[in-house]
Amino acid sequence: MRKMSYAGKAGAWDKTRIRYNASVDLDGIPEEAQRYLLGSRSGLDWILERYQVRTDKPSGIVNDPNDWSREHGQPRYIIDLIGRVVTVSLETMRIVDALPDLGLD
What pTM does this model have? Predict the structure, then answer.
């Protein structure tokens, strides 16, 4: 299975497009969604890092975030989560941008 990632190549990522898997691309992600940061990375960066299939080398245990989707009959769970994170990112930045200046000089 191909790793979920932004489209493009390292150093030239297209953060308006996510390669979910070999068959599914999520296009049209607003660049503005990258402004909402959780620490030093965007919410989308966090999702792409955390929601990967990983195998623990010593034990061989596979951590597949898709397992929860299958167990609960929600195959679109991660795709829908990405959509929700984009919405939260955009709405949060809209609210923050509309806040008045504190006037602290």
Answer: 0.85
